[in-house]
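Is zinc ion placement plausible here? Inputs below.
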Amino acid sequence: MNNKESALVLFSGGQDSTTCLYWALKNFSSVHTLCFTYGQRHSKEVEVAKAIAEQAGVPFQLLDASIISKLSVNSLTSDITMDQEKPAGSYPNTFVPGRNLLFLTFAAVIARSHGIRHIVTGVSEADYSGYPDCRDTFILSANASINLAMDEHFQIHTPLMWRDKTAVWQLADELGVFDIVRAQTLTCYNGIIADGCGHCPACKLRKQGLDSYLKIRK
Ligand code: ZN
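Reply from A.M.:
I modeled the complex. Tokens:
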């Protein structure tokens, strides 16, 4: 990694992107954050993200991507009830079709305007509901397409790609930000920071990883 370069982190104030923010701060000389709004259920997410970025001393940019919530109906962008489990043979209704491709494209355009060529995103194949746009093959393909589209040499980094939630907690700990991630991030679908509501799918996944990490933590 070239420490003299800058990186743009796709940042939501959740456990994953906050871990990515601190990973980027360790690996790059300067870091910017980009946060998307798109009819999230809780505008609190934005406040949380902004506060974490401020504390980390990095610029925080907010981009209105609410067009995405007008394109299709799902539980992250509307008031319909969220699937608690993945329905057999399909994606859960928390899946927002095209989201990561749009977000990465927006991020690359913004990065380019800042002269930044490294983009960091917290997507992972290891632990999730199998969203197609969280897979490594998709990221590699999007990276190639975005570079061709703009005749640039962006590098998309996915430090969490092969880490399950236990390993994400471990990474936060190695980066010295375990307490920040645990106490200040918002992952819960019901908008409760830190350990959250405890019963939504995001809280369950987060807690499972935390419990298993605490067992092996030195
Ligand atoms: Zn929750």
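Short version: Residues 188-190, 196-197, 200, 202-203 surround zinc ion (CB under 6 Å).
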